[in-house]
């Protein structure tokens, strides 16, 4: 049995994870919003997936049934390739195509947020070390 995080460092890391999840929710809202698709998100990291998945899947269903061109533009905007879709379909054999796409979108948005955060942290570290070297 693993004990809950108790050290300052563990608590900081745990809260940082929550911040990244919340930031991912906001990124999803932004990207869907650019296509006129409303996503409601409370900002609660602990219910992130349950809160967003069905809303997102509903929008994916609508995009797929309304306009393939608009849907393809949406995937391009989020930066999802056909190869990624095929990989996820192979991994999620018991899921519908729309569920696979929704899962992939969540993961892609999370990767964007993590990547952006990584470079933000690197920039802070470089700026801090430059100041220390003066």
Structural features, described:
The protein is mostly helical and 134 residues long. It has one domain (21-121). The chain contains five helices and no strands. It is globular and about 50 Å long. The mean pLDDT is 86.
Brief account:
By secondary structure, the chain is mainly alpha-helical.
Distance between the termini: 47 Å
Helix content range: over 70%
Number of domain units: 1
Quaternary status of these chains? single chain
**Main β-sheet description:** none
Strand percentage: under 5%
* Beta strand count: 0
Tally the helices: what do you get?
5
How are the SSEs placed, and which strands pair?
Blueprint: H1 8-33, H2 48-66, H3 68-78, H4 82-91, H5 97-132
Question: Tags for this entry?
Answer:
76% helix; globular; mainly alpha; 134 residues; 5 helices
């Amino acid at each position: 049995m693993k004990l809950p995080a108790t050290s300052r460092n563990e608590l900081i890391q745990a809260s940082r994870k929550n911040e990244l999840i919340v930031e991912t929710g906001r990124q999803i809202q932004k990207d869907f919003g650019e296509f006129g698709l409303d996503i409601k998100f409370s900002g609660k990291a602990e219910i992130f997936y349950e809160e967003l998945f069905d809303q997102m899947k509903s929008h994916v269903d609508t995009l797929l049934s309304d306009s393939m061109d608009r849907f393809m533009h949406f995937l391009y905007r989020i930066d999802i390739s056909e190869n990624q879709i095929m990989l996820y379909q192979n991994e999620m054999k018991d899921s519908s195509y729309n569920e696979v796409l929704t899962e992939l979108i969540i993961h892609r948005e999370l990767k964007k947020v993590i990547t952006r955060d990584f470079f933000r942290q690197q920039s802070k570290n470089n700026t801090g070390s430059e100041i220390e070297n003066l």
